[in-house]
Amino acid sequence: MSAQQPSASSLTYRDAGVDIDAGDALVERIKPLAKRTLREGVLAGIGGFGALFEVPKKYREPVLVSGTDGVGTKLRLAFSWNKHDTVGIDLVAMSVNDILVQGAEPLFFLDYFACGRLSVDTAATVIGGIAKGCELAGCALIGGETAEMPGMYPDGEYDLAGFAVGAVEKSKAIDGRRIQVGDAVLGLASSGAHSNGYSLVRKILERAGAQPDQDFHGQPLRDVVMAPTRIYVKQVLAAIAKHDIKGLAHITGGGLLDNVPRILQPGLAARLHRDAWNMPELFAWLQREGGVADAEMHRVFNCGIGMVLVVSAQEADAVAATLRAQGETVYRIGEIVEQQPGAAQTVVV
User: Fold this and answer.
1) Which helix (H) or strand (E) holds 80?
2) If DSSP codes are grouped into helix, strand and coil, which group holds residue 111?
């Protein structure tokens, strides 16, 4: 049987809205970005059907730790404000910070970028942010998927997801079980709202009639609201290597009130002192413009604390000094106490 010859009315994949050539062009743009993230363990570059990674030989009893996440409705602002260079950092941060709290070193990251019509420039900008996040976390960007799906997303919009895999020595995994009454609670400063609470952020921006280019304490509001999530990996791993860290909590959706209890045993509570750290002006502005109650702020936003560490009271100053030497802003924000009957496991006083 002879092959079907194209006719004037024959359809192509491009007619259906998928541009394979654009996808190939994007891969070529991505390759040097991914190359910058290479580290020990990577066995194959981008382009294969699967990515190969060998667990570094320094681990004797490696336990793999994985985490997956997205960027949430912060993407809506990226679309409307045409700011795509930081959301890739957010994507990496949300996963690597999550596996960090188990004491794990992130090893590699994969991303999923889906759109209705592929803009090579926009996608390359987003993935450039992903590569930057991987560099900050010390993990390799070893693969991913770019899906062009006509009719699934409006022009100019896309969705992001990703996952990280890390490793920790089985004997050194951090699970919070050794936390006890009298331990100190340290907080590491956030870089802003990170990637949580943006449905409320967008509602407040709308109510306030805010514009992305308006001045906000010497910066465009766009840059303050879209500041990427801080990646704490290298700094906290340096502290773990030197000190006994009993528990770690990444302050994401659920804020301080819902995330800290995830590392506490029944009968324990964290008492946090609101005047112990500086809440960035962004949060004060959001609370003021939205008329948001204190309890709601503490449950929705990080309120200036992106990572919480629990250590013995005796070692708190030394741990804080190590983290400050790594460039972190550290606050001693509270202590572990007995949970009162019927009371929450995190109380902000």
Assistant:
1) helix 74-81
2) strand
- Each residue's pLDDT tens digit, 143-155: 889 999 999 999 9
DSSP assigned state of 134: H
State pLDDT tens for residues 194-229: 999 999 999 999 999 999 999 999 999 999 999 999
Reference 247, options 186, 295, 299; nearest CA is 186
- Nearest 5°: phi and psi at 348? -100, 120
- Structure tokens given for 243: 């000190």
In order of 178, 273, 333, the CA distances from 348 in angstroms are 22, 6, 10
Q: What is the pTM assigned to this prediction? A: 0.93
d(CA 117, CA 331): 46
Long-range Cβ contacts of 258-266 (<8 Å, 24+ apart):
258/299, 258/346, 259/308, 260/185, 260/308, 260/345, 260/346, 261/344, 261/345, 261/346, 262/176, 263/101, 263/175, 263/176, 263/179, 263/310, 264/176, 264/179, 264/336, 264/345, 265/176, 265/177, 265/179, 266/339
